[in-house]
């Protein structure tokens, strides 16, 4: 009896999933599509599905799919209707053209954030080994020159270390009335990114502050982590007393006193993940910073969001971005309060686009704006992708 019940229940789930597949396919889809080199999961999904982040659930409705999280060039996606009217989206037998599966997003557009940037615990950054000087009293370090560091007691000759530079510190505020009115609403927290290094180029990306993010308003706030940029590597030559001698191996910028040393991350990111809705919704996630722009960003640009692994966010998590509505004066009513100021009204938030997380840290994540119908600002709210 139990076995029959389980089979019946499984059949019900299968039917619901297949029905979902049929309801999410875009009109006019072809019967099949052959995956090509250069495709991405998001591009294929958005081409054929009205909700691209639902593709794993749709493919899992097909029992012949062994691993719906990975597809390869040469895979044939069947988008046709069978005799019962159910839609199947699955993998047919094929000869693979390439040995690696396609990625969720074009990694070339975010490679800097995958290989060169990290968000770390601020105390960990402040307590990490640091560059104290250079040979012959030079002001800057370059590849091939000796670099002197302190607090690198565990170093061994021949060991390589990453040289990193702190670029931004993310802080959260409780929305208790001590922040500028235009940045927060009652009961909502706000975020600010303090620029720590002004000598980093726009393309190398510190997150840039909006002019409204003045530290005069903010005080200390709750620390969410410090962003660091990997600017080079160095190899240990010797350790004497409390000073370690290294030789610069490579660098993208001149090395300065105060730059930090951290272990080389041999596997800085996972290239294979898939778009999906949040497994659990973080509390009031927001866009908190971005690069390559001062005030707004659009499609295919990178942003930082105020949620990470501690809030249940992982690679592939997809959110809808809601642009904050403006607060405008109510000129029609003609009324004013006893202080003589005009009455105002808060306009509703508006749909702005979708973003997908591609790298997570404890309390902050990097995400790529997959599409956008309007400019995205700092403070824009993230909601379930519906």
Radius of gyration: 25 Å
The proportion of residues in beta strands is 25-35%
For the sheet with most strands, the description reads: 8 strands, antiparallel
Cα separation of the termini: 39 Å
Helix count equals: 6
Order of helices and strands: HEHHEEHEHEEEEHEEEEEEEEEEE
Q: Which word captures the global form?
A: flat
Give the mean pLDDT.
Answer: 78
Low-confidence stretches: 1-20, 176-189, 198-219
**Structural class of the helix and strand makeup?**
alpha+beta
Number of domains: 3
Number-wise, the strands total 19
- Helix fraction? 10-25%
Outline of the structure:
This protein is an alpha+beta fold and 386 residues long. The protein has helices spanning 2-24, 41-48, 55-59, 111-115, 122-126, 215-218, and strands at residues 32-34, 76-78, 90-92, 117-120, 130-134, 146-150, 160-173, 190-195, 222-240, 243-251, 260-263, 287-290, 302-305, 318-323, 327-329, 344-346, 350-360, 365-372, 381-383.
Description:
This protein has 386 residues and is α+β, with helices and mostly antiparallel strands. It has 3 domains: 2-102, no CATH class; 111-198 and 218-263, no CATH class; 287-383, Thrombin, subunit H. 13% of the residues lie in helices and 30% in strands. The chain contains 6 helices and 19 strands. It has helices spanning 2-24, 41-48, 55-59, 111-115, 122-126, 215-218, and strands at 32-34, 76-78, 90-92, 117-120, 130-134, 146-150, 160-173, 190-195, 222-240, 243-251, 260-263, 287-290, 302-305, 318-323, 327-329, 344-346, 350-360, 365-372, 381-383. Strands 4, 5, 6, 7, 8, 9, 10 and 11 form an 8-stranded antiparallel beta sheet that branches. Strand 9 (222-240) and strand 10 form a beta hairpin. It is flat. It starts with a helix and ends with a strand. Mean pLDDT is 78; it is low at 1-20, 176-189 and 198-219.
């Amino acid at each position: 009896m139990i076995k029959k019940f389980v089979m019946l229940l499984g059949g019900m789930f299968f039917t619901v999933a297949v029905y979902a597949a049929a309801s999410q396919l875009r009109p006019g889809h072809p019967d099949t599509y052959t995956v090509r080199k250069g495709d991405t999961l998001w591009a294929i999904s958005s081409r054929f599905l009205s909700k691209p982040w639902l593709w794993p659930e749709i493919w899992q409705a097909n029992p012949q799919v062994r691993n719906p999280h990975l597809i390869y060039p040469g895979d044939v996606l069947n988008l046709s209707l069978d005799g019962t009217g159910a839609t199947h989206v699955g993998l047919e037998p094929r000869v693979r053209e390439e040995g690696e599966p396609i990625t969720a997003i074009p990694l070339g557009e975010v490679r800097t954030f995958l290989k060169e940037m990290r968000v770390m615990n601020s105390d960990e950054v402040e307590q990490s080994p640091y560059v104290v000087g250079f040979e012959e009293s030079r002001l800057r370090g370059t590849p091939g020159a000796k670099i002197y560091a302190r607090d690198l007691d565990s170093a061994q000759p021949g060991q390589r270390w990453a040289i990193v530079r702190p670029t931004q510190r993310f802080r959260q505020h409780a929305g208790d009335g001590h922040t500028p009115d235009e940045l927060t609403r009652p009961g909502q927290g706000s975020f600010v990114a303090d620029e720590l290094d002004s000598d980093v180029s726009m393309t190398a990306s510190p997150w840039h502050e909006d002019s409204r993010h003045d530290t005069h308003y903010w005080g200390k706030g709750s620390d969410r982590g410090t962003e660091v940029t990997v600017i080079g590597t160095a190899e240990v030559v010797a350790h004497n007393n409390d000073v370690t001698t290294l030789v610069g191996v490579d660098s993208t910028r001149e090395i300065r006193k105060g730059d930090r040393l951290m272990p080389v991350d041999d596997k800085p990111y996972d290239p294979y993940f898939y778009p999906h809705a949040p497994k659990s919704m973080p509390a009031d996630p927001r866009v908190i910073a971005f690069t390559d722009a001062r005030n707004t960003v659009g499609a295919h640009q990178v942003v930082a969001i105020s949620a990470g692994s501690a809030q249940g966010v992982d690679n592939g998590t997809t959110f809808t971005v809601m642009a904050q509505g403006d607060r405008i004066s109510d000129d029609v009513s003609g009324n004013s309060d006893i202080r003589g100021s005009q009455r105002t009204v808060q306009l509703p938030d508006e749909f702005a686009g979708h973003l997908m997380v591609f790298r997570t840290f404890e309390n902050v994540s990097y995400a790529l704006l997959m599409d956008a119908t309007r400019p995205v600002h700092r403070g824009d709210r993230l909601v379930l992708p519906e």
